[in-house]
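Summary for the steering committee. The consortium agreed at its last meeting that each partner would contribute one worked example illustrating the joint modelling workflow. Our contribution is presented below. We chose a case with several input lines so that the handling of multiple components could be demonstrated. No manual editing was applied between input and output; the record is shown as generated.
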Amino acid sequence: MIAEQLETLLADVAAGRLAPQAALERLRHLPFEDLPFARIDHHRALRQGHPEVVFCEGKTPEQVLAICERLESASGSFLGTRANEAVASRLRERFPGIVWNPVARTVHLSPTGSPRARTGPILVVSAGTSDLPVAEEAAVVSEVFGHDVERLVDVGVAGLHRVLAASDQIQRARVVIVVAGMEGALPSVVGGMVSVPVIAVPTSIGYGASFGGLAALLGMLNSCAAGVTVVNIDNGFGAAAAASRICRG
Amino acid sequence: MIAEQLETLLADVAAGRLAPQAALERLRHLPFEDLPFARIDHHRALRQGHPEVVFCEGKTPEQVLAICERLESASGSFLGTRANEAVASRLRERFPGIVWNPVARTVHLSPTGSPRARTGPILVVSAGTSDLPVAEEAAVVSEVFGHDVERLVDVGVAGLHRVLAASDQIQRARVVIVVAGMEGALPSVVGGMVSVPVIAVPTSIGYGASFGGLAALLGMLNSCAAGVTVVNIDNGFGAAAAASRICRG
Amino acid sequence: MIAEQLETLLADVAAGRLAPQAALERLRHLPFEDLPFARIDHHRALRQGHPEVVFCEGKTPEQVLAICERLESASGSFLGTRANEAVASRLRERFPGIVWNPVARTVHLSPTGSPRARTGPILVVSAGTSDLPVAEEAAVVSEVFGHDVERLVDVGVAGLHRVLAASDQIQRARVVIVVAGMEGALPSVVGGMVSVPVIAVPTSIGYGASFGGLAALLGMLNSCAAGVTVVNIDNGFGAAAAASRICRG
Amino acid sequence: MIAEQLETLLADVAAGRLAPQAALERLRHLPFEDLPFARIDHHRALRQGHPEVVFCEGKTPEQVLAICERLESASGSFLGTRANEAVASRLRERFPGIVWNPVARTVHLSPTGSPRARTGPILVVSAGTSDLPVAEEAAVVSEVFGHDVERLVDVGVAGLHRVLAASDQIQRARVVIVVAGMEGALPSVVGGMVSVPVIAVPTSIGYGASFGGLAALLGMLNSCAAGVTVVNIDNGFGAAAAASRICRG
Amino acid sequence: MIAEQLETLLADVAAGRLAPQAALERLRHLPFEDLPFARIDHHRALRQGHPEVVFCEGKTPEQVLAICERLESASGSFLGTRANEAVASRLRERFPGIVWNPVARTVHLSPTGSPRARTGPILVVSAGTSDLPVAEEAAVVSEVFGHDVERLVDVGVAGLHRVLAASDQIQRARVVIVVAGMEGALPSVVGGMVSVPVIAVPTSIGYGASFGGLAALLGMLNSCAAGVTVVNIDNGFGAAAAASRICRG
Amino acid sequence: MIAEQLETLLADVAAGRLAPQAALERLRHLPFEDLPFARIDHHRALRQGHPEVVFCEGKTPEQVLAICERLESASGSFLGTRANEAVASRLRERFPGIVWNPVARTVHLSPTGSPRARTGPILVVSAGTSDLPVAEEAAVVSEVFGHDVERLVDVGVAGLHRVLAASDQIQRARVVIVVAGMEGALPSVVGGMVSVPVIAVPTSIGYGASFGGLAALLGMLNSCAAGVTVVNIDNGFGAAAAASRICRG
Amino acid sequence: MIAEQLETLLADVAAGRLAPQAALERLRHLPFEDLPFARIDHHRALRQGHPEVVFCEGKTPEQVLAICERLESASGSFLGTRANEAVASRLRERFPGIVWNPVARTVHLSPTGSPRARTGPILVVSAGTSDLPVAEEAAVVSEVFGHDVERLVDVGVAGLHRVLAASDQIQRARVVIVVAGMEGALPSVVGGMVSVPVIAVPTSIGYGASFGGLAALLGMLNSCAAGVTVVNIDNGFGAAAAASRICRG
Amino acid sequence: MIAEQLETLLADVAAGRLAPQAALERLRHLPFEDLPFARIDHHRALRQGHPEVVFCEGKTPEQVLAICERLESASGSFLGTRANEAVASRLRERFPGIVWNPVARTVHLSPTGSPRARTGPILVVSAGTSDLPVAEEAAVVSEVFGHDVERLVDVGVAGLHRVLAASDQIQRARVVIVVAGMEGALPSVVGGMVSVPVIAVPTSIGYGASFGGLAALLGMLNSCAAGVTVVNIDNGFGAAAAASRICRG
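What follows is the complete predicted structure of the assembly.
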């Protein structure tokens, strides 16, 4: 139940078409439905501003489908992350209109109406080719959440001229998401160039003492550029959700 | 040199009172001055939107004073964090107008003009009494950066009614900074209640397997509330800088 | 040899049907048998209140079968955890009456008599769909140990209303087992709601800086709800064993 | 407001001496009071079965006193942990009846009525002389919470005969709290001897690769005795709170 | 070139059959041969008392064979650890007399003469069925090095009676190797029972917070039984080599 | 009660001067005495071959004195480790004959009879000046336990000629204890030179990424010299106890 | 665009065949080209002295090919590391002249002209057979960068005579790259023998507490031989790049 | 005994003034002297190119003095690092000509002759004011070793213009030592700008999740600029020794 639907309900109450007590009861009973293996939270759109997102990794295609069917019937749309081909295929049988992005590993069904335009753009900067899956997850989720998105790829701190050449593009973003593995230094450089929010996403790319992204994570937490914030390793979705919170503000 | 001063310079150029070449030269030579032990970056206000902040820990009062004198002569103001009483006393001899907050461990000299009002409020939520120094650092820095600030103290997840009782206050913030030690669960709860940006600050409060804030840091990075971002342990200043980036957007 | 069988033996002694010395000798020689690869401890039921449980992971189906045959002949029942389909199939050939739960990965043969009713219920709460295998292991083992079990699934701290809606159910449990991955905050919330024992089980669910459950483990150890205790990562069996110790008290 | 006081209130409602609406309002406004630096949760006794406990470390004697005064006026009693001599002295000036235990570092004011007898005993076992402060914290808090407590000191796994000699005492406990540093093996041994709940408390005692209690913590989490649960390093209070939850069940 | 062969050489020198200078030169040129991928150290038997052992993991069967051929031609025997079936098959084609132990994952070719009897016995104690491969590696290597070996399997600290029942056997060993995973407590118990050397081998057996044997390793390093020494995780070979050093002393 | 005293007791039994039952009872009641804060294990000399050693760190001089008085009255001797000057002074008032070694931080009272000569020598090798306290603890404890001890100081792997120059001394030891901080490579070098047991003691000496001795500990556990065993960081006492076990064999 | 090509361009400018402004513009626009998934930095040869190297792991053969085609057309050569057979085969179809080294996992296309001779030799020392892939990566990359390379294999610190026997060869190197796993002690020994730069490469070889190369890494960082520097675990390429920087100086 | 002295000795041999046998004997007996607590390696200058350096931390002023006296009598000079005021004062009493640098914490006595000019310059770049002690240690040691040294202070990656403004100075160095705490990103930026060797020194500066320099260390090991090498945390001396090895080549 998205915001529009709730407004209708409240208008019905205001117009006397629905008793407050009945409205309250309906609201109280709506929050989540009982699937045998998951409870779906249709109110999240109200509280957090975007529909519940299905983390597909570790769920069978059938489980994902069952959850998405409930989401679709409640709100007309859904978004899945970490969706492999098997999940996408199973969903497509039931919802031919889905869009699956194999690099970003996202699958989503757009609502029928056009998304409300929101502030932006959100700029997604990535340091290396290997960081692309995480960067694309951030970019696609941002788009699905209704924001304009720009991308800037393969700009590493060992080649500063690449970053500097993109200075204008970086400056005009509303939020910058910086995706980097290895030493995770790129957010510090970008954070020093702009005054807008910078969200750093460490990736598990690297070898040896990168320890699965730990080096990049620690680097970003210790950034010497004040005001850089960090999300979990490889968590492109989380960065997009944070960027969306900022843009909606 | 803050934005206002730069505008004057550019106006002088536009009015023909200053040759562009001379202006450029002045700008090029302004960025930093050579102290024997530190370079001060007066342009930072242009790039990042707030004056350079002096991290006082590990510096002698004399070193802090020398840096602040340069900052004051360039911009008329300064802000120091992790400032103990010795630092504050030394600065007060030279700048009687400073404000020292012993809980937040901040010291600052306000610019003569009143700060431009900015969006807000920034709400600083803290979980326990012991988290107050970090929370106050976040709050005071936010105020010095020109934002309205509200505080909500001692709301822990083991007593949910406390959080819920403050629901209205939490909902109307532009940004929420959540400061918590121990298991670091409060940002997840707050993040699930609001759609605005939530910045989590782990503190080193706790004992045993809190490992100096590591438990809270990991908890916040793994928050099940999408879109929560994290800054370094005890980094109240960084959270305020990030919140300020968001509010200025 | 479970408690009932021991009572018979002691009764025989009391009735003069068995000399004390002979009884002592029999007891002394019973404790464990010599398999080539494992010693089975039939006295454990006496000392710890439940039969020895076979941890099947890393054992061949033949090894599991050999151990279970000895257990069955001594006590008439057995319980295996981490049992995959191959193990279950091999056991079923020999013991058609076994029950295999593929989600919980448990297999057990019930004793012929009905289990003595014990106090309860034990409530197993889990945070996410992915936590289900661990939660089910805890639930099934609790049932096999003779306790009433209730389940509450998919209640995360980012959606507090879900937890609050189940408040009544949580309050009436004798023990609450809380299974959660990611930041591991759910036990703190539940621990703050009830006065009964709360056993926290961190799971290895999560990604990035969850570090295979370390984040959840540290979060639970640092819980701000006093009196929450913790078992090993993914150790649903251990939580059930602890809950059973409490209920038998 | 402890349970007795609440029963009076409810009886007043039942007897018509207090309108339900007025009672509700009073309850709603009672939960916590606003100190400038802490909120006190008087309802906790209702929800969790014991009064809020003040963690004194990191608080000034004045702050502790202010919190204890509110607690005393609401419930007639209080309990502080990690209380050093300065805290105890300051509290004694105001509350001459307090009891301070310098080994356990606890300070408490007993309620005027005698505590209701509760099940027990809780047995606190400690491995070495150096573990005594943590063990005593567990023991004293258990006593303050109204339980019978027994102590068994200096029984290590390298001298099994010591443990075995106390076998009878261990067997008759309702709950066993085992406090140990170094390799943390004692809970496994005790857990294998009894069928009652065993709560393990790792201590930071040890040197070299004990890493501040990490070795003992990991040892206890990996205990081969099924059903042993663990609390945080040095957290004697937490173990007592957990034991109290079990005994009250 | 084993000790016997060296004695012959020296005897030849003493008898005038070999000039000292020629003997020296031969010795100097013998130490290692140049294979394209490995240098073999035939003198090790002189310096360390046993032939060089081939760690087969990560080497191709052909590489292992080439190394063993050189060892065999120099000394008449060899020993390989971590040898899988492919390695064993390849070696058997060339050396039909090899012995392969699939549990211990060892393969060896005995010297033609019978090994000199050495002191002992070396007792290998293991805690669980899953620890058997490491325990067997320790036992078989000890035997190949010429020692009498006894085995005691499946004696865990949660069932003390099992350990105590084997007290006599443990007491009469010359060295005890204790192999254990999980909390690694068994060496402390055994170390407290005997005055002979105790070598602890942590295994990677366990789950959750065992962290691949780290918990057991730390437990053993922090053993409260004085004089227990530790080798690397899963390093059954190293324990046997250490035991052999002791027995040869 | 050391071995000699026990022999007397048994001889009394054999001679009819003491009834077996009385002897048994005395033995059963002897094992440990009840001090308020510690139990002393007089039987340890029987089981492990040396008297109980008092770890003085973290105990008050009065506590140490009380324990030593019991030990002295039972066996005529005691040994304390990590003994600072305050402890030594307090003990000297009561036992003028004690020997305090301020570098090794040991204090001991020798038994009146001369120690029985034991095999040896035990060679203690240390890598740097800063490792001396740990090396001396190992050496002094070895001497107190009745062994001949030799010392070899300041031989590091970056100056191989130092090690090689001492080759003869190293070769003739019965056991070598190698004490080293930093990268902990010395035991590998020594282990490759001799065939006798090598016990490695990592020290917390070093800076930066030595992490309090962790680097040396890991280096020693991964030694490429087969059969090197390791004790805890800075645990000179433990190394001596292990060496003593070997020499007594 | 390698240095030669740049010299041509500059000569054209000097000769008046190219206007400075045009040259500048061309240079400014040359730095990188836009592939959909990677930006290639042709200027790197100018700035860092060697062409950009393609890290092939995690890229498809098609992606590697596309990058190499751009590199070849710009500079006539390329170098790929971590190249498996699939990558090599795909490249060979297009560039028959490539050289693929399956042990070093490198693939490269040499420039048509002969490489300029550079100082050397670079000596690559490796400790064990299992370290060969990393050592070969260092050796081959050094050769491709135009340096003379020598190799010394299988010299471990447990057999010092092997190192000493190669003393002459080690002494005459311009730079020594030392590749070692396990305890990582070899660089300390080599560093103590020579006065030239020593670059240490820890490898992930080892088991148990080697923790994927962490033990070797820490050992090397804590080397007691002053002036040893370290690169990332398994980073043979990085060591070669560092050695090349030194030789070109 | 530095190189010059050795040359004299060898010349004496060549000229017949010293018998070879006598020369050999003198050399053999020179390597180190026996102090009770340290062996001094006078040959190190021959092998490694600089005199032995005394790490003063953890040594008493008397111990430092005794070592320096031996060094001075052998070579006429010495260098101490981590020297506090007490050490410097004690040395000055005996050697009035010493130079003590309280920021670098170095103390040294120059040889009477002027140092031979060596290649350079060595450029020491530091990121923040707090990194100065480590940077100064690197700079002063480099000077004492006979190299020209330049310094560049307070250039962080969050203010790229500072680094770029010093581009010319950075380009002309023979070696660059980069000292940085926090995220340790500066070496990547500098490494991308130059083709000469870059030695990275992580410092323990930072707070929260910098974990005593671990974040900077990991960042530097994972640098995306190929050929950056790393020394231990805070090890300014080691960086200077490595730079000196390079410059002497």
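Chain D touches chain E through 36 residues (CB under 8 Å). Residues 61-75 of chain D form the longest helix (15 residues).
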